[in-house]
Amino acid sequence: MSEYSISALEILRNPQATMQWYIIPLLLIVIYIYNRELKDKNYNVVLGGAALWGMDLFNEIWNSIVFYLSGFAPVWGTPNGTGNTALLILIGYNIEISLMFAIMGIATCLILPEDKKMKIAGINNRVFLIVIFTTLSVMVECFLNYCGLLTWEYSLWSTKFPWLVWLIGYAPFFTMAILVHDMEKRKHQFLTLAVIYGVDISLLIIFGSIGWL
């Protein structure tokens, strides 16, 4: 087992050792943002934001499963030490990451042009923004890895080979957020979210109960 993984296990779901007061105002900020959008009846924005958050949770679950099966390290980890967290929820998923993605989904949908067919630089604006958002996110991820806040211990998931981070780590998040946002029927939005969160909850229950998370 890697040194980083051992350090993360020391604080995994141990709020008595890690919890900090700053999480309370951060949580209130997220609650305010969602309630603000709901009050303004921006339901597509809220549902799109929820889709992105659910997609990220799915990635965090399979990352924990990889750690258990390998017995060495997760694909990405958030170790104890540099960039201490207030709460490590899963081996590569802390409360700060969770709240960040909750806001990121809202921000993504708010910036979308109303005209779905409008082009930017000759490219459909949805496709263009997915590429831009994904690329910027991977750049931030690489910087976090450089700072030691995120650890990558597999050659296929590294700064020298960022394509999987791009394709798996972020592109599906933004794609799903925009797809849900743009759906014309509310029932299709809720059905899509039901599938996303149904899979997430099922995986948490199944693999959590057998100790893989």
Give the helix/strand layout.
Layout lengths: L2 H9 L3 H4 L4 H17 L3 H28 L5 E2 L10 E3 L2 E2 H16 L8 E2 L2 E2 H23 L3 E2 L10 H20 L3 H24 L4
Antiparallel strand pairs: 1-6, 2-3, 4-5
Q: How many runs of DSSP E, i.e. beta strands?
A: 6
Order of helices and strands: HHHHEEEHEEHEHH
Question: What's the helix count?
Answer: 8
| N- and C-termini, Cα separation | 15 Å
Strand arrangement across the biggest beta sheet: 1-6
Mean pLDDT: 95
In one word, what is the shape? globular
Could you describe the largest sheet, including whether it forms a barrel? 2 strands, antiparallel
Care to describe what's here?
With 213 residues, the chain is mainly α. The protein has one domain (3-193). Helices cover 66% and strands 6% of the residues. The strands form three sheets. The protein has a two-stranded antiparallel ribbon. Strands 2-3 form a two-stranded antiparallel ribbon. Strand 2 and strand 3 form a beta hairpin. The longest helix has 28 residues, at 43-70. The radius of gyration is 18 Å and the shape is globular. The model has no long low-confidence stretch (mean pLDDT 95).
